[in-house]
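Margin note: ligand = iron/sulfur cluster.
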Amino acid sequence: MKLAVASGKGGTGKTFVATSLALCAGRRVQFLDCDVEEPNGHIFLEPDLAEPERCIVTIPKVINDKCTFCGKCRDICRFNAIILFAETIMVFPELCHSCLGCFLVCPDDALARTEREIGIVESGRAGSIEFVHGRLRVGEAMAIPLLKAVKKKAKENFLTIMDSPPRNLVSICNNSFRRRLCFPGHGTDPVWSL
Ligand code: SF4
Ligand code: SF4
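Resulting structure:
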């Protein structure tokens, strides 16, 4: 069973509820802290953590000798991560969501793949609880790949309790979880959403 504790707003007590549930749930419990911008489940659970895994995304780099400045990469990029003025083309790695669309449409094989580390995933144990959280690099805007990397750690045949991030990231976090515990708006009364 997978259970997400969710809210559209920070400060409603999700982490407190999620960690309390994990502590009460008995054996074969996994706690995923998906609030990668500000994870604080570890403050409540105090896990012993193993070596971190780096979360790497692929970013395009223009090979100027090959580029014909056709603009196809700029046109497909929904995130405005590529700009083109006449014969000057620039990639803004901080805006790139690593969708790889520009690589697919470039007719001249003029984009090279480079890597960028956006954060780390740390795993460990807090007593009988298996613990995972992500830490986004300071100043990093692109949280989704790291959030997905934490979610991938969910195990079958475990009770997985996920502390969801607030705001717009919450839907990405919860769309594969069938049971959710939601905190609406500023309220503190949880609502089950099945
Ligand atoms: S990988 Fe996707 S988001 Fe990044 S620059 Fe290319 S099209 Fe834009
Ligand atoms: S699609 Fe390829 S050739 Fe066209 S502007 Fe982008 S990098 Fe250059």
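Residues 185-194 have pLDDT under 50 and may be disordered.
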